[in-house]
Amino acid sequence: MKKLLLSLALLCASQLALALAPYLQAVKLAPGEPAALLAQVESKLQAEGFTVIGRHLPKGVPQHASLVVTDPAMLEIIRSLGGSAVIASGIRVGVKSDGSVSTMNPDYWYRAYLRGQFKGAQTAVTSVQTRLAKALGEGAGFGGDVAEADLANYRYMFGMERFDSTNSELKEYPSFGAALSAVQEHLARGVGGTRRVYEVVMPAQNVAVFGVAMDDASTGEAWWAAKIGADHIAGLPYELYIVGGKVYAPYARYRIALAWPALGMGQFMGIVNAPEAIRNTLLRVAGGGN
Predict the structure, then answer these.
(1) Which of 46, 55, 96, 164 could form a disulfide with 100 if both were Cys (CB 3.0 to 4.6 A apart)?
(2) 278: closest CA among 206, 193, 219?
(3) Vertex 60 angle, CA 57 and 61, to 5°
(4) Which stretches in the chain have pLDDT values below 50?
């Protein structure tokens, strides 16, 4: 009996070891305004070779902000992979006015976004994670747990969307250039209450990704993010990406669940209108809505 109990305990420990959290705590800073905290984080990340491409101070969530950076080696991997891998270009770090700092967990997000191509990027992913920890410190994971083996084909529950579900496609254009110009124009005009947070374009691969802030009080990100936990700010901004002539955005029943995997069904029902609101907003950015 003792041997059986020990075996079960070891099995449980092994399963826990293979579970990943979406975020990692970093060393806390002195309290301050989010914009000032971002500036401190920015200098630390630049010293470790990261390039700052965007700052996100979401309207309606005044105590939170995120910084988006890129890593040269990771971008080279993404170029070599092409296609939807471009969505993984941005590396997100969150801050809160109480001085809390968090980072996206690269091991978690790259497994989800690169899926079957993750193995080829693993060395670069480890480098990103190591240097994030060196720049900002690395503490405990938080935000829920997903088995690492499940991330490549992740969905919140049976019947819900995965990364490549058909309703992630928003609009098709005759060429990559036409798609890129349309998205850039619509973000510049702020259609649907949106703003561009960052942009990565790889013209030789005919791919691009944008971080999109959604500021509308009734359809934007603030109302639903505040309801389910704005401390997951390193999960934002939301991505819209282009492959060839097609514009995509991961459907929110996938993307929100990936960023908030511990979300209870009651909480999910409390934001039941968010997935279509997000899709309709990004559909306008893509040029497919009114």
Answers:
(1) 96
(2) 219
(3) 60
(4) 1-16
Token pair, residue 191, equals 């259609």
In this structure, what DSSP letter does residue 144 have?
A: -
CA distance 223 to 209: 24
Name the helix (H) or strand (E) containing 198. strand 194-202
Q: Cα dist. 27→6, 64, 68, 102, 166 in Å? A: 36, 16, 18, 8, 40
pLDDT for the residue 288: 87
pLDDT digits (tens, 9 = 90+) for 185-236: 999 999 999 999 999 999 999 999 999 999 998 888 988 998 898 999 999 9
Residues 6+ apart with CB under 8 A from 220: 58, 59, 60, 193, 213, 214, 281
Query: Do the domain assignments include residue 211?
Result: yes
Domain that holds residue 239: 20-286
